[in-house]
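Box 3.1 A note on notation
Throughout this textbook, protein chains are presented in two layers. The first layer is the amino acid sequence; the second is a token string describing backbone geometry. Keep the layers aligned when reading.
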Amino acid sequence: MQAQALFLGRHYRRAFHLLNASQIVLRDLRFRYLAAKCLEELKEWDQCLLMLGDAKVDEHGNVLDVKDCNVMYLDKDGEDREINISSAICFLRGKAYEALENRAQARQWYKAAIKADPLCYEALECLIDNHMLTCEEETSLLSSLQFGSEDGWLSSFYSCLIKKYDKENVVEAKFGELEKENCDINPSGPSFTRTLKNNSDLLVCKAEYYHQCEEYQKCFELTSVLLERDPFHLKCTLVHLGAAMELGHSNELYHMASSLVKDYPQKALSWYAVGCYYYCIKKYDQSRRYFSKATNLDGTLPPAWIGIGNAYAAQEEGDQAMSSFRTAARLFPGCHLPTLYIGMEYMRTHSFKLAEQFFMQAKAICPSDPLVYNELGVVAYHMKEYKKAVWWFEKTLAHVPSSLSEMWEPTVVNLAHALRKLKKYHEAVSYYEKALVLSTRSLSTYAGLAYTYHLQENFNAAITYYHKALWLKPDDQFCTEMLTLALVDECRHGSIDSRRSEVHVL
């Protein structure tokens, strides 16, 4: 109790001396854990690991050296519902290794912590938020956890936390099941239950799903409601900033950034918000400066590293962008976005083979993100492998989690272009028309549809769509030249038809 009192009073050095000098750390794991917590607060990470012992863990999170488990507890049954000390020690080892930038070991110890005690939510949060696992690894880890009979709702909640690239009906079913589930919030009164329908953490998971589906307006509306209810929910704030930036809501970003810097000047999230505001108004130098400040405060904030790379890419500074994306790929091996952006940078410089390699790496990390398949299709198109391009674009549309929205209109147009190259004109026309349903203001769609009709010698339809394209962009060189050719072809075709009719009459 004295050591705990000193710890809570922030007298970490004195608490550690008391525990260490009395040799009590050798008698009970709880005292050793408290001593290690003192060293954690003092940022003495190597000493912290020494205090916790020399146990080893495999890549699946199974602890190999379990000698510590045989140490006797003092007053073992003195406190009901005590935390799992083995899990707590595994989690602290993970934090120490992460602080020492040994992320591979940190990942394994976080897995060990959540396996030892599925209620160790902090370990799962570190694994997910820091993108330490791929989609498959996250699913495999959850399936290996042993939940108690009363913790079924927690299993469902964890499944909503991980990457959500399943079909819309699968993900919605997960949320629906959890919202209907009763969870007992008072063990002494089993009749006193509630559902998780309005739980903020669950609704943030739903907002993240909308963001992944690129339904930014839905995401923004949901996070706005949540932040009115709980203005200090930092995970919700991060999702809200992402949605606001995608929608171009610069005023909202300005107000959010101002509030965060005022309330949390030492948090990386606050300066990340400032960077988002400057990125939104296209001031990329300032944006990059504040994203960098966020990474200096917290090197484990993935959006900040990606933001630095995107700010460089927006100014076509490819080498610096590549450097940022590579750093992000190294720090966050479970996040496919840095690898995807590296591929995009190679594609921008027409290094299509290299781009394809990185897109395939991104696909290996997250095999269900439709954006990866779209980029593979674009690479195949540029390499004139049109059959492969059609296959990739069809895979893209098959992997879109929700119904097609305007966000996926370019993919539909890309598929139509590839089909036109294969001279499958009727199928191409069908996809161009689908694209027009999604967006009526796309120059590429009208131009592609006009050119396809032109190739089919349907000059009247071609002329109509060339005119519609030029209405969107009157100075488009391709459409202007092709319209002239279509008019000439229509005149020639018309005169030939009239001669044929005269011959027929004769």
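The radius of gyration is 29 Å. Residues 185 and 193 are 6 Å apart (CA to CA).
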